[in-house]
Amino acid sequence: MRVGLLFGSFNPIHIGHLILANYMATNTTLDTVWLVVSPQNPFKPSNSLLHEFDRLHMVRLAIADNADLGVTDIEFRMPKPSYTIDTLTYLQEKYLKYQFSLIMGEDNLATFHKWKNYEQILDHYEILVYPRSGSGKITESLKEHPKVTVVPAPLLDISATFIRKCLKEGKSTRYLLTEPVAEYVHAKKLYQ
């Protein structure tokens, strides 16, 4: 089983995340894509993060009707902040018959050399890179690395930051969030 891992805060999960995950699951050699809900990104401040269980629940709501997508809370039980190499290692030990690939945006690839044990990731895991606006060009050395594949996934410039701002200001997020997620956000008065 070939599993793509799409890490994120999903604060909240939106249609951009879902379109990307579905595209990767159905238009590459992957069998499925798991969304890895990260409790804390080591490169981002955590002060604006919604509680991890709310974010996990929203992901479950968003993908409930899609058999090509899954979700994992594996990082909830790991030391914080979470490091991708530690998560990959843990998952590989737990699921010996699965082959994991890392899905990341071009913007992350530009700073990939700053990640903990990035060489180990490159040595052992395929990296599927999708375009991100304003991320600049991928360095030639990484672009030509045998473990890196650039995937021409649809480019959607939608951000969770923008959605949170809309929610805080009482503006519509219709078509940005799935209906179940929007209903959950409004029922719990999240991001207001």
UniProtKB/TrEMBL annotation:
<dbReference type="GO" id="GO:0005524">
    <property type="term" value="F:ATP binding"/>
</dbReference>
<dbReference type="InterPro" id="IPR005248">
    <property type="entry name" value="NadD/NMNAT"/>
</dbReference>
<keyword id="KW-0548">Nucleotidyltransferase</keyword>
<feature type="domain" description="Cytidyltransferase-like">
    <location>
        <begin position="6"/>
        <end position="165"/>
    </location>
</feature>
<keyword id="KW-0808">Transferase</keyword>
<keyword id="KW-0547">Nucleotide-binding</keyword>
<protein>
    <recommendedName>
        <fullName>Probable nicotinate-nucleotide adenylyltransferase</fullName>
        <ecNumber>2.7.7.18</ecNumber>
    </recommendedName>
</protein>
<dbReference type="Pfam" id="PF01467">
    <property type="entry name" value="CTP_transf_like"/>
</dbReference>
<comment type="pathway">
    <text>Cofactor biosynthesis; NAD(+) biosynthesis; deamido-NAD(+) from nicotinate D-ribonucleotide: step 1/1.</text>
</comment>
<comment type="function">
    <text>Catalyzes the reversible adenylation of nicotinate mononucleotide (NaMN) to nicotinic acid adenine dinucleotide (NaAD).</text>
</comment>
<comment type="similarity">
    <text>Belongs to the NadD family.</text>
</comment>
<dbReference type="InterPro" id="IPR014729">
    <property type="entry name" value="Rossmann-like_a/b/a_fold"/>
</dbReference>
<keyword id="KW-0520">NAD</keyword>
<keyword id="KW-0662">Pyridine nucleotide biosynthesis</keyword>
<dbReference type="GO" id="GO:0004515">
    <property type="term" value="F:nicotinate-nucleotide adenylyltransferase activity"/>
</dbReference>
<dbReference type="GO" id="GO:0009435">
    <property type="term" value="P:NAD+ biosynthetic process"/>
</dbReference>
<keyword id="KW-0067">ATP-binding</keyword>
<dbReference type="InterPro" id="IPR004821">
    <property type="entry name" value="Cyt_trans-like"/>
</dbReference>
